[in-house]
Amino acid sequence: MTGRQPDFFALEARIGHSFAARNLIVAALTHVSAATGARRESYQRLEFLGDRVLGLVVADMLYEAFPDADEGELSRRLAELVRKESCAEVALEWGAQAFVRAGESEKHASALNSAILGDICESIIGAVFLDAGYLAAKAVVARAFEPRMRAPRRALRDPKTALQEWAQARGLPPPLYRETARSGPDHAPEFTVSVELPGFAQAEAKGPAKRLAEQGAASAFIAREKIMDPGSQKGVA
Asked: Which of 89, 104, 136, 205 is most buried (CB neighbours < 10 A)?
């Protein structure tokens, strides 16, 4: 491609995708503090898109890889795989930190901040999706995330405990669980439970026991908000 920066070849090789549209990879690596021009293009919109593509691909991978897992287990595995720290690790494996364009105030943070690197990973996935479509993005995600799926780097934590610790770390009250519906015969009931935290939309799940429905609701909340481990970085990226 005319005018292509040779340095990008090494990055593309690690990602596993060669960009036809160079402007996409440039935008995917541009922090808002370094965005210029009338539209001030940065990775923010690509990160938004890549986040959704990543979630879909990983959910599909989990569905196929764990046919006996219930919704709660799949949600826990999904939350673990797409958390910002996991995405930041992938960005580091790609060596993306060396290519991040940032303003003076963010240059050091761009190399060290897990949240920024997590965003960069997602923005690159979004850029691949726009450059070559879903199958290309799926291949990039599978290459980076399937080893993590097959060999989780952390034990899957109890979702109610994880959510309560995260809420406590943010100074929020304990999650409130409400039984919103019950159906089915007495010998085989199905409970619907919601979990609520101030400032967040409630999450809901169903289960054959109230305890299982509560765990499912906590898992749904964790997956939706991409909650980090309270023991590493507190809060949602």
From this structure: 205
Q: How far apart are CA 20 and CA 10, in angstroms?
A: 15
Which amino acid type is present at position 209? A
Task: Using the structure block, give the residue that is written with the tokens 């305890």.
Answer: 211
Q: Would you call 70 a catalytic residue per the annotation?
A: no
CA dihedral 60, 64, 68, 74 (to 10 degrees): -20
What are the structural domains, with CATH classification, of the chain? Answer: 7-150 (1.10.1520.10), 159-225 (3.30.160.20)
122: annotated active-site residue:
yes
Q: What is the DSSP string of 146-187?
A: HHHHHS-SSPPPPHHHHHHHHHHHTTPPPPEEEEEEEES-TT
Query: Cα(39)–Cα(36) distance, rounded to whole angstroms?
Result: 7
The one catalytic residue in 47, 80, 89, 122 is 122
Say whether pLDDT at 1 is over 50. Answer: no
> Which tens digits make up the pLDDT trace of 135-171?
999 999 999 999 989 877 665 667 888 899 889 989 9
Q: Which residue has the tokens 């709660």?
A: 72
pLDDT at 37: 60
The model's pLDDT over 204-226, given as tens digits with 9 standing for 90+, comes to 999 888 988 998 999 899 989 88
Span of 121-130, 157-166, 173-182 with lowest mean pLDDT:
157-166
CB–CB of 95/124 below 8 Å?
no
Considering the entire predicted model, what is its pTM? 0.64
Catalytic residue among 51, 80, 89, 214: 51
φ and ψ of 91, to 5 deg? -60, -40
